[in-house]
């Protein structure tokens, strides 16, 4: 679906709620396209990619492909310099990998799935756009990867007693963060903090995440989107060649390392997932989720 000159009802409501309309007022026209999994919109030089695989935006093969496709779609517009990555759900940014992709998997699909997950990381972390993460809800595991891949991260302080959490908690349910994601954590929070966090599968509150540089700002939940658009416009004002070149000074070598070892990473991942004990752990965890729903 493609519409020119109008936004979806969701975007209008959210922008009004976030008092962010002034960041769109200068746009001559807007373009919105959507799929069942993500929605992209463009207003002036800032785009939005909204994840829409409810209830928790878990990353299936199709979801990974949709995110990468959405990024490429907005990058193809030369006017766009900033991107806000957001979630339709206020309670969950992304819950991470869809574990159904890992449990008793078809090997061909497992291969395609992991390659698509790698590609999401490469597309976000290496994007020519200034990517601002609007993290209103929980971002565990691969949801944390989506956040850490952004140039700047703004997290909600929570709503009432509901405080969102962020971190790589894979070890808690018997699997290990992939090397490129574990190293990203170490690069972000530091060696010692990262070692402890990865080993314990630690999830951070917003204030703790801010303390260790996992996020850059913590604001009230109703201000996350508005502040994210403000930052996106601020970053988009920087001359794009200078901004992107500066970004690559910090990220190019890391991106090249993953590009060079993608096949090796896929095989290592498949070998780990197909381990008998890992499958038992995954099965037990998925069963526990079913019990909780009853």
Can you walk through the features of this model?
The chain is 48% helix and 15% strand. Strands 1-2-3-4-5-6-8-10 form an 8-stranded mixed β-sheet, sandwiched between helices. Strands 7-9 form a two-stranded parallel ribbon. With 294 residues, the protein is of the alpha/beta class. The protein is globular. The protein has one domain: 2-enoyl-CoA Hydratase, Chain A, domain 1 (Alpha-Beta Complex). The protein has 11 helices and 10 strands.
What are the main properties of this structure?
eight-stranded mixed β-sheet; single chain; fatty acid metabolism; mitochondrion; 11 helices; disordered N terminus; alpha/beta; lipid metabolism; 48% helix; Enoyl-CoA_hyd/isom_CS
Ends distance:
37 Å
* Rg calc: 18 Å
CATH architectural group: Alpha-Beta Complex
Mean pLDDT: 89
Let me know the CATH homologous superfamily: 2-enoyl-CoA Hydratase, Chain A, domain 1
CATH class: Alpha Beta
Helix content: 40-55%
Question: Which fold name fills CATH's third level, the topology?
Answer: 2-enoyl-CoA Hydratase, Chain A, domain 1
Which geometry do the CA atoms define? globular
Low-confidence stretches: 1-31
Indicate the proportion of strand residues: 5-15%
Largest sheet, in brief, is: 8 strands, mixed
Tally of separate domains: 1
* Tally of individual helices: 11
